[in-house]
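Section 3.1: Structural characterization of target chains.
Under the original work plan, the team committed to producing a structural model for every single-chain target entering the pipeline before any wet-lab resources were allocated. The record below documents one such target. The sequence was received from the expression subgroup and is listed exactly as submitted; it comprises 331 residues.
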Amino acid sequence: MYETMLLISRALQSELPLSEVIRLLVNDDKKNRTNRSLLRFASLLDEGLEPVVAVRKAKLPRRLAVLLETAFKSGNFPEYFAELTETERIRFQTFQMLSNLLAYPCLLFVVTLVIFGLMTLTTLQFGVIYHDFDATLPAMTKIAIIVGKTMIQPKTYVILFGGIIVFVFLQRLLFSAFWFYVPILGGMFRSVASQKLLVQLSFSMKRGVPIDRALELAAGSFSMNRAYRKNCLKAAALAKKGVQFSEIVSLFPLIFPRWLVPFIRTAEKNDTIPLALRHGIDILEKDQSGISFLFTIVFLPVTYFIIFSFIVFFIIAMFLPLIKLITALSG
């Protein structure tokens, strides 16, 4: 989707009508669902339909539809859409970096599951042998056998997947900001979302858009991020009541980094808030690099340690009764 936005943004610089820009880019290629939706959108615009209404009727991909609608509501579609495209570029690059970082841990996770399955089956076989010998089993071996028997029961997986579904539902309903507080990765997600917010606020405020309206526009682009949208709308309501922007920033630590407060307070005195926001954007971009480095040096060693500990536990659990049995027979 980012590539589509980038092409549209660049083509709009030629000052061609949006419908004509879309047709030039799509080039009547109707094999792709997004292209079909874009062509439908262009036709609706040519029919004279209001852009926001046309976006909704064209059934565009949700993220693209939200960003187009937000840009239209800004009153300066080409420039605001260009800024939104820039935020999507940052988001795209960040998640690409995250994908690269998570590729190896995900592989390790799969390997761990395979080892866990093999260990479980082996432990159960050892359990049968020890039962035939009527051997007294230590606590570690009993735990390993209980785990093995539990893991081969179908109802275990029914309960597991049911629990995941309930957790996801409750998380979305009651605690939409959950993933932003996950160690290390949560900081990365929060940094990307806050950077997007600051980019949009900076753009709006440079063009004289009031703070409350700028926050409302930003909230519109967070339709898939309930926590940020809700906080932006609350912040906009406070701005309408005349609360200073620096105080608003301090009241919403999820969407605004705490270290941004002194920058905004100083900027309010000098009337340079957009410049302070731009400085905050640069800092957040550096933070993302730092978080990715921290992830590499902390997460991977911890993963290795967990896998190693898991293997050692099962090996000891399997062979400890055998050693005791051999010792008893030798004596």
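The two ends are 73 Å apart (CA to CA).
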